[in-house]
Amino acid sequence: MKPRPLLTWAALSGIVSGAAGTAIAEALALVIAPASSPIIATGSLMIDLAPAWAKDVSIAVFGTNDKIFLLTLLAAVLVAAAVAAGILQVRSTPWGVVIFGVLGAVATVAATTREQSDPWWAIPAVVGTLGAAFTLLRIGRLLTHWQADARPANTGQRQPGVASRRSFFVVLASTAVGAAVIGAGSRAINAGSLAVDAARKAIKLPRPAAPAPPIPEGAALDVAGITPLITPNRDFYRIDTALQIPSIAPDDWSLRVTGMVDNPLTLTFSELLELPLTERNITLMCVSNEVGGDLTGNATWLGYPIRELLRRAQPRAGADMVLSRSIDGFTAGTPLEVLEQEDRDCLLAVGMNGVPLPPEHGSPVRIVVPGLYGYVSATKWVVELEVTTFARSNAYWTNRGWAEKGPVKVSSRIDVPTGRKTLAVGTIAVAGIAWAQHTGIRSVEIRIDGGEWMPARLADPISADTWVQWVFEWDAPRGAHTIEARATDAEGTVQSGDDVPVVPDGAEGWHKIRVDVA
After folding, report:
1. 10 Å Cβ neighbour count for 422?
2. How far apart, in whole angstroms, are the C-alpha atoms of residue 487 and residue 498?
């Protein structure tokens, strides 16, 4: 056999062997625990170890598709490693097996260091690695035999190497098919968590004891292309550290209130639904949202006021922070005084826009805090509230260079026009949204080509905790133009025009677009 075909089949042998090991591991993860999947555990470890700048770049480039990008990157790395393993196994035994051993060790460490893991979580990675190594040894041996048997054929004689070649292809093909069926099926079942999803859909949300105030008739402007007043669940942004969405059956969920409290308590999901729930419209914002970005959403949330839960737990003197913990290990540090404020609707949310929380948005329970960026407040899949201090405890992102406290900054965004097409001379609606959660918006102003600031017309706000729509009727002349927007909150704070990056506590600057009018 010529060198080039040999290396091609060797590389394919490595890929198929790696796929076989992955399929075995995914199947075992169904039995052990969904989060023990080596793929998910390794990806989650990559997220944890990634520097803050890498996270910012990923979100800036891929937005809410950052998880897809990470999985694609991880798959590319694994395929490259499998190709190297296959080639080295043929050229320099046993280095191919060693490569799989290294990958297995990394996956084992990743799985056993996840939040709520136990030693059993090592089983999928260990057994999967052994399966990949055994498959590589077997297929590599068959390939070597085929190579050794391949000799120039003599006239009238049977082609040498036919039997060994047939054996190689039979084993290679059957292994590939088996790995594809078992691996894809296991991953689909693992990720789908069908029983849990069915239990979530069966939840009957109670009527709120404190319904959301009616939305004013003038809250929504009739402007084509403007951001909807309420964000549909399917369009609501998702930024978190979970590579695989945690799957928690409502009956298995409970919340512990621990730490510096006189009355530690545990709350089950059924107990939570029996409490008098509050419904509110609240805008949430990711701290990674760039000026003019779309990492913000406005929804109608249903939940129990966290201040009431803390009142039951009775925080001790000296406590100033609540460390909320997700089932996947993510933590957020929220100022205790914010959660205890009587006029701020901080919720332990169970519903979103009239339905139980979708899995990707924190089912069965998450935290919603108006006025703070999500990295210090909006913990999804929450299972613990630890009352503590900022001096004693650090949260996930504050350990990575972000500010301890993240109040949302007053900001505005231009939704239309988009600048992607030439506009016609005449009256053009310049419109968008502005926000200053828990303070409210007093005004929005527009500036054309660096001229004077001109007032836009505000829609009727739903509340101080939601964004507000605005519009400016512009008599657009011919030519290229620059449009800028700035907002002023209800306390008189004017949106900063300084260009400030998202790190460490949110971006600043005026949203600016360029349009052509002809």
Report:
1. 9
2. 14
Residue 260, classed as helix, strand or coil, is: coil
- How many of the other CB atoms lie within 10 Å of CB of 190? 21
Angle value at C-alpha 303, between 298 and 304, nearest 5 degrees: 140
Q: Encoding tokens for residue 242?
A: 């979970």
Using omega within 30 degrees of 0 as the cis cutoff, is the peptide bond preceding 417 cis?
A: yes
Distance (Å, whole) CA 431 – CA 437: 19
Model confidence pLDDT, tens digit, residues 226-256: 999 999 999 999 999 888 888 899 999 999 9
Q: d(Cα 505, Cα 399) in Å, to the nearest integer?
A: 13
With a cut of 50, list the residues of the chain below it in pLDDT: 155-158
Three-state DSSP string of 1-56: CCHHHHHHHHHHHHHHHHHHHHHHHHHHHHHHCHHHCHHHHHHHHHHHHCCHHHHH
Residue 123's pLDDT is 96
Among 278, 254, 243, residue whose Cα is nearest residue 385: 254
Whether residue 414 contacts residue 513, with contact meaning beta carbons closer than 8 Å, is answered with: yes
Instruction: Name 282's bridge partners.
Output: 299
Question: What pLDDT is stored for residue 454 in this prediction?
Answer: 98
Look up residue 141 and give its two tokens. Answer: 């041996």
Query: CA Rg, the chain, in Å?
Result: 28
In contact, 277 and 304? CB cutoff 8 Å: yes
Residue-level pLDDT at 4: 66
Q: What pLDDT is attached to residue 60? A: 79
Q: Which residue type does 94 have?
A: P
Helix (H) / strand (E) containing 334: strand 331-335
Residue indicated by tokens 């409970």? 254
- Scored b (16 or more CB within 10 A) or e, 207-241 reads ebeeebeebeeebbbebeebbebbbebeebbbbbb
